[in-house]
Amino acid sequence: QGAHQGCSGLRSSIASILWKATSGGDSWLGRGRLLRPPSPAPAAPGARLFRLPGSGAVRAASPERAGWTEALRAAVAELRAGAVVAVPTDTLYGLACSASCSAALGAVYRLKGRSEAKPLAVCLGRVADVYRYCHVRVPEGLLKDLLPGPVTLVLERSEELNKDLNPFTPLVGIRIPDHAFIQDLVQVFGGPLALTSANLSSQASSLNVEEFQDLWPQLSLVIDGGPIGNGQSPEYRLGSTVVDLSVPGKFGIIRPGW
């Protein structure tokens, strides 16, 4: 499944496949407080919800910055307490928890009804962080071409990751979504987040918070960044493209995404 490539050839080949990928399954990773000023939205018991100001994917400008910062602080506090929160990404809504909290990892599997044999991805805030949590055997330029973006890069994991995170594999899928809020969240949190799609296993992925409303009672926080993509097109529900870069000189597309 792999193809031997030079650095530039590998980069262009992956880019070509990412652009052409239009279908795929969830074979590698799965895929509340709603700030709704001035009046709060109705919330299911146990859920707290925040709506991000502006478009949600772009850092708030000055008058709305307070709402952005409030949502950020609330999410960081819940993650540090070992809770599971729902967040927008550049592809889908996701469930996130501290990758270092074994109890939180177990909670994600239980609330999704997800098989523990399916790995969770790790969300990082910067390309530089990849080198801490993975053994990287591809050029830095390739990582920077692909990240941030709608891809999950599968690499060999380092000893820095929690041993209870995907203990059945030496590999890990790395995400740096092209989404300002989740990048801010990971950097302020100060550690890796485990990330999976916000839906019950085997059900359709979510492009807005209402689509996974049945999960709200089991979440500590839901961050509403508005609709993602085009809900009428099934292509937008495919999630990120999963690219295996764990073998030097080779790559493989594990799952085509949108």
TrEMBL record:
Mention any Pfam family matching this sequence.
Answer: Sua5_yciO_yrdC
Q: From which domain of life does this come?
A: Eukaryota
Q: What is its EC number?
A: 2.7.7.87
| Subunit relationships | Interacts with RSC1A1.
Q: Name one GO cellular component term.
A: mitochondrion
Reply yes or no: does the keyword Mitochondrion apply. Answer: yes
Family from the record: Belongs to the SUA5 family.
Its placement in the membrane is given as: Peripheral membrane protein
**One GO term (biological process):** tRNA threonylcarbamoyladenosine modification
Q: Does the keyword Ribosomal protein apply?
A: no
What role does it play? Cytoplasmic and mitochondrial threonylcarbamoyl-AMP synthase required for the formation of a threonylcarbamoyl group on adenosine at position 37 (t(6)A37) in tRNAs that read codons beginning with adenine. Catalyzes the conversion of L-threonine, HCO(3)(-)/CO(2) and ATP to give threonylcarbamoyl-AMP (TC-AMP) as the acyladenylate intermediate, with the release of diphosphate. Participates in t(6)A37 formation in cytoplasmic and mitochondrial tRNAs. May regulate the activity of some transporters.
Q: Which GO terms describe its molecular function?
A: double-stranded RNA binding; L-threonylcarbamoyladenylate synthase; tRNA binding
- Localization: Cell membrane; Cytoplasm; Mitochondrion
* Catalytic reactions on record: L-threonine + hydrogencarbonate + ATP = L-threonylcarbamoyladenylate + diphosphate + H2O
Q: Which controlled-vocabulary keywords does the entry list? A: Cell membrane, Cytoplasm, Membrane, Mitochondrion, Transferase, Transit peptide
| Principal location class | membrane
From the Swiss-Prot or TrEMBL record, give the protein name: Threonylcarbamoyl-AMP synthase
Task: Using the record's annotation, list all stretches that form the YrdC-like domain.
Answer: 69-258
